[in-house]
Amino acid sequence: MALLEVRNLATHFFTREGTVRAVDGVSxxxxxxxxxxxxxxxxxxxxxxxxxxxxxxxxxxxxxxSGDVLFEGRDLTKLSEKQLEDVRGREIAMIFQxxxxxxxxxxxxxxxxxxxxxxxxxxPKQQARKKAVELLEEVQIPRAADRLDDYPHRxxxxxxxxxxxxxxxxxxxxxxxxxxPTTALDVTVQAAVLDLLDDLRQAHEMAMxxxxxxxxxxxxxxxxIVVMYGGQIVEHASVNDLFDRPEHPYTEALLGALxxxxxxxxxxxxxxAIPGRPPDLKNPPPACRFAPRCPYANANDSCATVIPxxxxxxxxxxxxxxxxxxxxxGAREPEKVQA
Amino acid sequence: xxASPKPPLLEVSNLLKHFPVRSGILIExxxxxxxxxxxxxxxxxxxxxxxxxxxxxxxxxxxxxxxLQLLKPTSGSIRFQGEELTTLGREExxxxxxxxxxxxxDPYASLDPRMTVGDIVAEPLVVHSIGSRRDRTLRVRxxxxxxxxxxxxxxRYPHEFSxxxxxxxxxxxxxxxxxxxxxxxxxxxxxxxSIQAQILNLLKDLQxxxxxxxxxxxxxxxVVRSMSDRIAVMNKGKLIxxxxxxxxxxxxxxxxxxxxxxxxxxxxxxAMKERKAARRKLRHALAEG
Lengths: 339, 289
Ligand SMILES: Nc1ncnc2c1ncn2[C@@H]1O[C@H](COP(=O)(O)OP(=O)(O)OP(=O)(O)O)[C@@H](O)[C@H]1O
Ligand SMILES: Nc1ncnc2c1ncn2[C@@H]1O[C@H](COP(=O)(O)OP(=O)(O)OP(=O)(O)O)[C@@H](O)[C@H]1O
Ligand SMILES: [Mg+2]
Ligand SMILES: [Mg+2]
What we know:
Chain A is α/β, with parallel strands linked by helices. Chain A has helices at about 45-55, 80-85, 100, 110-120, 125-140, 145, 155-170, 185-205, 215-220, 240-245, 250-255, and strands at about 5-15, 20-30, 35-40, 60-70, 75, 90-95, 175-180, 205-210, 225-230, 230-240, 310-315, 315-320.
């Protein structure tokens, strides 16, 4: 059984200016111990998806208008706030982009870790403190025992993110949701944090949902990747198949738009920019949400009239478009996969 | 070192910028100095792009601001077209400023929200009393057209536009006085990948069409690589390595540069396996000294 199964999730924001269809029919499953990467540009619905799973969307204006979130078979959308509190932190933990806003600046980090532990486990303070030191050591904070009584502002950005990870791990969750955990960090610090997450995930046999807008970050960390566009999943595949044979015109364009770090003609070449801009989710395009920017959509096809379904174009590779790469005229042969 | 036949457009020598660190509750005293820029030298030839990379706080923006004399250097020399800028009087500096402009990172913060798009782009022309009202209106339309912004929207306000559109407004404004040198300080860091590509392509086209010279500052090493002829690496205020882009990326000399490059995640899962192993090794080696 999947650890987490999200089925047809739709979360909308009911605002004075109209209904924002922030997440609109999202489905995916995650096996224990695996990492799912969710990529997409700003506003595509990544964070709202994560917050919906955790039961943390702001109600109102937001509401889950349809769908189930099955965690070990239990539908989290049906739980009371009290029941959800037991799940959060203990079974599913979450870390956010900005560790400063999610750490309490007025409490020492020791207090913040022990409070999380004691919220879920009935252990004496001293034992919780001992566990806190172990956790800080595990996330490689030097002189952990001495730093327990420091306040968050005494830590650098990378160190604060390690503290957040320590708090997230404190109750040995089965699933960690990391929403842009390294976006605010320098690239060397990002690499260290991602390596740390790798090690911890293996040691704790923890599954992870890694949310990012960085294709490089998912390429290195994820087993499977979901690409979101305008509140929907447009492509879902294993990491290798997604990068070897992207099918959705948006995924292809996104990869083409990325500047390369090694290769020929980088300086003189142009990037393949995607014309236009992401859809307004109050008033999205009627059928395919990518159609107005899609190089393959044209006036006399179905893109503006028929809503494309997410379909399995080959084993374990799902795509939502009328124009997947493999069905286009002169489609490329499946590329040879190098060892 | 530079094989360029022309004399450099910009020569920066031994640039130093220290900020005082103040402390004390009733009586503030300067207790120390941050060496934000610490003995930095480089040149940029006309029509060339020098990329400036480094981690947060390494002194990239401070270097850029000193070049434009938006910050007064503590010491050192900045020569633009052979003329020393650090000793110029106000009026001469004003004249020189026409040739040097800046594009900022945050298109949200850098545009005055109470001014219309047209007024924002026209402002440098007004400040330098260039052309009649009518001339300026025409020039603004031309500039907006060049940067791919619909000139029909000149009477709208910046908040009505997306990040990418706002960055185009900022670029049009920077181009208003036909500058020779443009300092781009993280011009695409706030933008999504698909929009980022539009702006990078635009900057490349403008360089071609108008022979612009760029000092291109960014922390994204792939973005800098795609824009630059040569690249300089800063670390803790010092310029630790400089060279042609391909050479520097293919064979970095400094351990710090190696660590920086090895940390960049690239969109290739198979290559990432090796890169991850390599960067762990490098990090451990650096930690052990
Ligand atoms: N409080 C809110 N009221 C109205 N709309 C909202 C609210 N919060 C989010 N949205 C909308 O929901 C959509 C999805 O937002 P979400 O935060 O999930 O995007 P994201 O993919 O996480 O983007 P980013 O990369 O910028 O974090 C956006 O269009 C956003 O404008
Ligand atoms: N006005 C100021 N007063 C005091 N210190 C300053 C000031 N401006 C910058 N600094 C310090 O100078 C150093 C260099 O800052 P700078 O903004 O140039 O870095 P940067 O490389 O542009 O970083 P980032 O990538 O974060 O933009 C930092 O330590 C910063 O805190
Ligand atoms: Mg988000
Ligand atoms: Mg800066």
